[in-house]
Write a structure and sequence with these properties.
By secondary structure, this protein is of the alpha/beta class. Helix content is about 40%, strand content about 15%.
Length: about 300
Amino acid sequence: MATAPPWEALVEGGPHSPSLAVRGRDGPGAPVVLLHGLGGTLEEWDPVAGLLAPRHPVYTYDLRGHGRSADGDWTVDGCVDDLARVIERFGLRAPAVAGYGLGGAVTALFAARRADLTAAVSIDGFARPDADVVAAHLGIAVERAAAAAATVRAFLVDQLAAACSPMPAEVFDRLVAGYRTGVWEVPGAVAEATALRASVREDRLVSLRPGPRAVRAMSADLDARETDGPAADPRVPTLAVVGDGAFPPIPGAPALLREVLAARAAGELAAPPRANRSAQRLAAPYPAHMTRPEAVADAIESFLTGPASG
């Protein structure tokens, strides 16, 4: 089915509300809003958005401080407020919202505060690995599990902060050239478009938004809110999609990196059921919405026409 071409718009900001760059696709049915992860841009959702567009109006946007959106305070609450502004600006009635990583955490928080949604889907939207879960999964003492989980979390934050630090323009250009052939299992066109939209050139240096300080600030806020954020009871049908594929190899990674992340995923899937919340395993390499867009689009669509539709 042919779909209308995507369009771009800007949601104007104010003193404490940054302007937000939005990409929309017109279509029939219930609207869907897609939120990217920390350090990403709306481009990372482009393949999924194209798959959903024949059945839904689809909106993606750069989170505050990312891509072409303006800077703002680095708080989860601020990102939740931004999602509300996008929904209000375009007059979206009973939308579904879906997010990955940071976007997944924002989606889960939004679903815990708003009852005027059709559904919410959070893809790997959890942050800190739980020491008790890691200990039980790996069969090690809680103290060792806590240390391993903390090491993994700090390593991943350090890696993202380093990736967003200024680099010589020629280094960035070589990275982008490498992305064109695909990185890990992410399609080359998606990886390239995401990097280019996040990049800021200044003299002979290139930085990727949101920058290292913002990465650390938002990561700290996510950790501080872990107990009352993604774990909060949702007010609308909410699906946690948990990828169980291999995490890409990273030079210098902690010895238990993959084991800790696997334990985190297993804990999310084994969490006791709660009202309005279900979890689904997705056999897809990290990050699932970029490596397996068809599977993620199917998971969202199936949830909207299944549990979320009642």
